[in-house]
Each structure stands twice: as structure tokens, then as C-alpha cells.
Amino acid sequence: MNNAPLVHYLGEESGISKPVPRRRVSSNPCLPERLPTTSFLQREAETVAPKAVLRQLRRSPTPSPPNSPEPDDEPEENPKHKRRPSLSSLASSASSIKSFGSTLMQRSREGKSQSPWKEPQPFEVLRAVERKDIMYLMEIRDRSFHLLVRMSGGITPLLHAMRLGAGHRDVAVILLGAFSRWVNHVEDDQMEDPRTKMVLKALRTNLKLAIDYGLTKTQGSDLTASFLQTLIMSQGESWVRGQAANVGLALRGGTEGQPVRTADAAVRKFATRELGKADLIATLADYIANATADLLMMGAWSLASEVLQLDQIPTYYFARDDRVYKAFVERLDEHKSPIQFKLSKRLKWQLRVLRTVLEGRTTTYRNKVELLAGELDEGEGV
Fold first, then answer.
1. How many CA atoms lie within 13 A of 118 on its CB side?
2. Are 342 and 307 in contact (CB under 8 A)?
3. Is the Cβ–Cβ distance between 66 and 351 less than 8 Å?
4. pLDDT tens-digit map of 279-292
5. Is the pTM of this model over 0.90?
6. Where in the chain does DSSP place strands (E)?
7. Residues 6 or more apart from 343 whose CB is under 8 A from it?
8. What three-state secondary structure class fits 152?
9. Residue 233 and residue 339: Cα distance in Å, rounded?
């Protein structure tokens, strides 16, 4: 209600000066700034949170390892290590592979109903490839694997399938899958057997043959990565040991040693030397990241094992999914007390950073390696 006239009248009667009305406030409506989207906030959280955790590790360099089992906890069953699929190829010694293949398949046949099995002749295997008799080839895989990589008349089943042309490409891929299955079932105690090395070399030759024939166009990076895995398993022990030692020296130098860059460069150089094809290297981002992380863990543990007088992580664990990580964590938990009291402050921090960053499967190895580089190569260090 506007009372200005009444006030004006009363003012005139009482001799009071006329009041000056206040200036009306002008309306200037505005909208608040738009809030970020949920996806943006999620991405920011995923980027910032791990870095915050690593900063906390630097400030508190002496806590016990995360997720370490309590003494009262019930022992957990040892899960089988998962391994990255490894396709492979060709046998140079038929008799050795035959005897070893029979030994390997004996374990898989135990507990199963025994049905009469007459080992096929090499020509029968090649005929099964020609007829695309997948079921028969799978039975050979389970009962007489050595026949799938055996050279007969200057040819192997895989080479025969590839020479038959595009119509038999699916058979070639199935044979590669059979090679992968064989590698996945090689047990740790068999890795020291010279016959295992012989079969791995045969598989490697078959796989290189598949790469040269262009199967990478359908198999993508899996085929190439499997070739490198099989190559390292068959003859890469000295290379893995040497590079782990180099990475260990880089870790000892702290951030100035650039350990992540050292590990990444070593893996890329190895892949380039063995493949010699830049377009194949480009498809190996996941494998290179996985191998880089494994070299970092093996390098860090090599430093710890020197002080604690312990065994190193086996070289044949290298770049086979999270096999190295599991072995790494098992050793950290098993030797928690000596690690706490005998290792240097820097090395204990590096071990915790590696364990924390590489834990879990929600983040790709590429992202994990980038995070490690930001902390171990470019961070403040300890």
C-alpha cells in the first residue's frame, strides 16, 4: 500500500519537509551457473582420487601394506592364476613333442571316462583340416596335442589350413586357439623342463607364421601379443632378468632414474626388434602397459630380494595378465615384517605405490602406468 500522499499531507500540516522517495530497485534476474554433469564429476573423481591416495602414501611412508590379511582370518583358497591367452605354433622335433604332449594330456584325462583312442596318423590330421572337421580337431587337441604342431612332409596343420585359402581361415583361428589353450595349461613346475621350452619354440614358430600370413587382420592385437608372450616364455628369461635389473637401478635412483620410462622403453624396443612392423606395435598398447607394469614390480622386488635374501619372481610370470601382481602381493604380505625393518624408506614407498596403483581391474593398465609415471617419474619422490 502506497502511503506517500498521507505522509506528504502530514508533513505539510506539521511543517516537516517533504520526504524524498527512495529510488526503486530495478529488477535484474539472473540464473545460477550450470552444474557439471554427473559423468564429468565421475571422470574428475577417477582422476583426482588415485593421486590423492598416492600423496597420502608419500606423507605416511611407514604404514603396513593395505588389505593385508589378519592373523585370525581364515586362509583363503589359492585361486589359479589367470593368464593372458597365448596363441602359438610348429614343432621341430616330432618325437620329443609327441612324448611331451602325451605327458601333458595325461593330467587332463584323469577323472574322465576313458574311451578307446587310437592316435591318428599325420595325414588324418591334415584331412580333418581340409574337411573342417572341428570336433575331431578338438578331440586331437585334448588327447594328442603334439599332432597339431607336428611337422609332417614339410607342413604343419596350421600352415596347411592357411595355404587352403580364405575358406579355411576359421580352421586356422581354431588351431591358434588350441595353441593358446595349451600354453594356458602349462604348470609352473613344467616350465623348467627342457621339453617345455622345445614346444614353446615350436608354438612360437607357428604363431610367427600366422602373423606373416596376415592373421592379425582378424585376430587383432591378441595374436601379436601372444606371439611376444610365447617368445619370452621360450627364450626370454635372460632378457626379463636383465631388464628387471635395469628397472631396479632406475628405481634406486628415485624420480631422477625415470623407472617407468625405462621399463616402457625396454618393452617397446623388444617388440620392435622381434616384430619389425610399426603397424603391429601400434596395436600392442595394452600388452606394452601390462609388460611395463610387470617390469616395475619385478625390478622393485629384485631390490628387495637382494636385501632380504629371497627368491625373485619367476620370469615366466612376465606379461601374463595379473600373474606377476599376485606373486608380488603374496611376497609383500609374507615378508611384511622384514620389509618394514630392513628396506630403505624410498623402496618401501615405491613398493606401496606399485601395489596400490596396480590393484584391481576397474582401470586399464595404460591408465595405471600413466599414474605410476606421474608419481615415480615426475612426482616429488621420497
1. 2
2. yes
3. no
4. 667 678 888 898 99
5. no
6. none
7. 304, 307, 308, 351
8. strand
9. 30
